[in-house]
Amino acid sequence: MRRSSKKSSSSAPAGQTKAVSKEVERIDQLFYTYADSSSGMVDPEGIETLCSHLEVPHTDVRILMLAWKMGCEKQGYITLDEWRSGLKTLRADSISKLKKAFPEMVQEVTRPSNFQDFYPFAFRYCLTEDKKKCIEIPVACELLNLVLSLQFRPQVDKLMDYLKYQNDYKVINMDQWMGFLRFCNEIIFPSLDNYDPDQAWPLILDNFVEWLRANKN
Amino acid sequence: MSGGGPPRKRNFKIEAFKHRVELDPKYAERTWKVLEHAIHEIYNHNASGLSFEELYRSAYNMVLHKYGEKLYTGLQSTMTWRLKEISKSIEAAQGGLFLEELNAKWMDHNKALQMIRDILMYMDRTYVPTSHKTPVHELGLNLWRDHIIHYDMIHDRLLHTLLDIIHRERMGEVINRGLMRSITKMLMDLGPVVYQDDFEKPFLEVSASFYSGESQEFIECCDCGNYLKKAERRLNEEMERVSHYLDAGSDAKITSVVEKEMIANHMHRLVHMENSGLVNMLVDDKYEDLGRMYTLFRRVPDGLSTIRDMMTSYLRETGKQLVTDPERLKDPVEFVQCLLNEKDKHDKIIHVAFGNDKTFQNALNSSFEFFINLNNRSPEFISLYVDDKLRKGLKGATEEDVEAILDKVMMLFRYLQEKDVFEKYYKQHLAKRLLSSKTVSDDAERSMIVKLKTECGYQFTSKLEGMFTDMKTSQDTMRDFYAKKSEELGDGPTLDVHILTTGSWPTQPSPPCSLPPEILAVCEKFRAYYLGTHNGRRLTWQTNMGTADIKATFGKGQKHELNVSTYQMCILMLFNSADGLTYKDIEQGTEIPAVDLKRCLQSLACVKGKNVLRKEPMSKDISEDDTFYFNDKFTSKLVKVKIGTVVAQKESEPEKQETRQRVEEDRKPQIEAAIVRIMKSRRVLDHNSIVAEVTKQLQARFLPNPVIIKKRIESLIEREFLERDKADRKLYRYLA
Hints:
heterodimer; A: about 220 residues; mainly alpha; Recoverin, domain 1; 2 domains; two-stranded antiparallel ribbon; 2 strands; elongated; B: about 725 residues; 5 helical Cullin repeat like; 3-stranded antiparallel sheet; 30 helices; 9 strands; about 65% helix; about 5% strand
């Protein structure tokens, strides 16, 4: 997970310093338009406002990707450092620039090397104070839809059906979450020819495959 | 020698005659004629008139004077001519005399050959080897072979005659074995190839078709046992035939023909024969037939495996029916006895008829293992069987009998896959036996524990042994209690406390019921005493497990001593202050849990001969609206009446589910411990290997389900004992 650096901005060549510090100033200013004054962070309300300005629904996957870029630790909240590092990397210091940066950001995230990092990040992002290791099935379904449906629509559809149907598990843990991605990447769908339950697949996927095979008729 | 001059040194030489002693060719011809004449005379049985010395010398001279070739060729042609004459006379022989004539002439020829060879010995030793000719004796045999045996007219007839004689003997006729012996020996003498080509091969072919026909005939009309008897008889016959008049080398060949035609070709049909095949033999303990089948089938490839496979499938089928028959399952003790009987029966068959063949023993074991585990109540039932035996079945038995029965039970135990289930039940049943003092022999109990320990290790039996220790310790404690506190206790009820170490005993904790005041008082005194001498312990009365002996006086003054459970005692004591009580009154007064209360009331009011209470209404079941009265009119022939309900019995469905659930719960940590142990030593391992290793480690106790193993692995991953390898997600890695 990319962590935001807690240090303040490092030294830069003299000529650029002015331009850079101007950028930093604008970024910071932008931050404070959304941040809540008492907490010093952007809170869920602020995020909603941000989304409406960006003209992207706050349930859109791009907001999640943005959170990844920023390295947000807590769902629904953005700290100044996180904001800074995110927008700096995206080279955006205004809403319009931010918006323009989105297509490239999506491309970047979907590259396999980055996706391997983004995907578990999405899971961790959904963890809460009381549920530190698992997320509930409905949340997991939504998340799967958000994160994987572009690349693996048929698998995601079936998986969502199954997760809602079964009652062996009420929550999903990180191991199972990672298993889903591995499944989509490695298993031929919908034939499932190369799936072997004697391999180390999480049990929930063994059950899923069995359910799929039984319901083929 | 030349003279003059000094003598020169020379080697002394002896020189042969300078002039050749030429033998007059006419002389050679004359000499040959003499020898030729002699040969004829020998064949004419006129040898006595000849001079051996003279003939020898003649032959010698011929060879010496380089007429060896003439001699040899002469011999050849003379003998050939002679044999041709002989063949005509043999050919002329009629019917049965053919063989005799042949044999007689053969004898003659041999005698003649010997004499001729003696005469021509010098040629045999000098001319023959140097000219690479066949020695005389061998020549004689070859000529006989070529001109007699291979002579068309004789050859076929000879073979036919021999085969015909053998056939007649097979059909029961008595034949001239000596003559046969002589003929076959002749063939062998002529060379093994002659014997084989001119007799043995056709003999084997004819025999094969003979036995093929006969076996077909037999199998249509005989039952399995009789067929085997006939096959055995024929086999022995052939072996005897060989030993009497065939060459020893034919033994293996003819027996394999019989084996093939009579046994191998009909194996399956025999084994599967209805009403007389293998299964019937097994069922009816036909040791002799089975033994015969074993010895015969052992001779042919796949013979034994045919028997073994059939036996295995029969055992599995019968066993399966036995363990799934609901009628049988009603009585667990009978059920197990049936299993033991089946085992005994088949052990005996293998011992008596199959010569203790290990492969058959293994087949028996694997069959039993297969079907015993088909019924998941087998562990419980075997424990109940042992319980019955230790409770009363072994009463009066000698030590050897006890050992024998327990050893047999251990054999069944070994077949169990779920030994941990057995352990759970054994513990329960043992607890009941110990607490109600219902064991027939302490030694028998101990012996069983030792056997289990030998089989499964110390861990299996440590808690069981703890139970015995508790019983002993309790005895000592009670003794001390009464020694020290007898004055204080005075006339109150006598207490006998068993102090059970939690963890060793399979107690189901339940809140104590409400004890009658007299009992409570003495219990408290004991508690105070015990805690006084044992620091830091906590005692909880297990009122669901105790018993009580109470004296009751009924309407007409009859006194009885009732042996009841603690719960029942509490209920009955209530009737000291009231003649009639409702269900609700009793429930309140005793605080006994509803299920147990109903069961107790049932045994106190609804069982004939034990109805110390009377119930209104008189229905069979207990309802919460019932009222109970002390049964004044109770009678019993016995002074001591037992109404307790602590006997071990087959569990009800819900109880069974509960026990099984507890077993599953117990298995989880065992599986996890095994996984962690394995991963700790191997560090990195793939999924299948873990499953295999875990199964191997735990198989002495139970057969773990691979799905459960996977679940446990995932749980361990979640708790960060293991992780998936980052590079290869098929591997697991141990996290230190």
